[in-house]
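Input record, target 12 of the design panel.
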């Protein structure tokens, strides 16, 4: 069976490689704008499904993995900052607060799809403006939901992480992904 990762994220590519399955990578062309009033969990799932569906159209017969992550700050979605000032603003907003990261995955072939959404709760410690600026300058986390990299220096920003799947916070919940791939017929130990 052919497997395609519908993402150009290097983080998702590295995570999926851990499962030891051969896969191709394709860029999904999907508008990631939230719909008015859309919850972060619904947005993450809708985008994961849309990415899988878009890539599946170009790869008939292949199983496609789509994934998306949205930071949920009091019901408001936070995506990728895209730049320094927005990253600083996001981290200031999350300082001394708990944020839930909704990471969705969709495994699709044609009209058959299996989906899951992981919720990882991150408690940020109180952060000074100087700490935030030093962190942003050091890691430049502009391509990450919430403007941090937990697999890097971003871990120093937290008091705690509460999760059932530590890979979800990096961008692809491997426990759920492995379960969905097994449901699709892939053999994983």
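The sequence produced for target 12 reads:
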């Amino acid at each position: 069976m052919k497997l395609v990762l519908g993402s150009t994220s290097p983080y998702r590519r590295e995570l999926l490689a851990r499962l030891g399955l051969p896969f191709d990578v394709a860029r999904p062309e999907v508008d990631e704008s939230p719909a008015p009033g859309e919850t972060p969990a619904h947005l993450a799932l809708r985008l994961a499904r849309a990415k899988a569906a878009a890539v599946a159209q170009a790869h008939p017969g292949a199983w496609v993995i789509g994934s998306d992550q949205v930071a949920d700050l009091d019901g408001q979605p936070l995506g990728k900052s895209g730049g320094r000032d927005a990253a600083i603003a996001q981290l200031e907003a999350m300082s001394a607060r708990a944020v839930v990261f909704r990471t969705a995955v969709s495994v699709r072939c044609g009209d058959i799809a299996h989906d899951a959404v992981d919720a990882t709760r991150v408690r940020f410690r109180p952060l000074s403006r100087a700490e935030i600026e030093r962190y942003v300058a050091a890691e430049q986390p502009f391509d990450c939901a919430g403007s941090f990299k937990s697999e890097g220096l971003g871990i120093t920003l937290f008091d705690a992480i509460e999760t059932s799947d530590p890979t979800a916070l990096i961008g692809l919940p491997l426990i759920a992904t492995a379960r969905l791939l097994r449901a699709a017929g892939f053999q994983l130990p």
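The chain has a mean pLDDT of 96.
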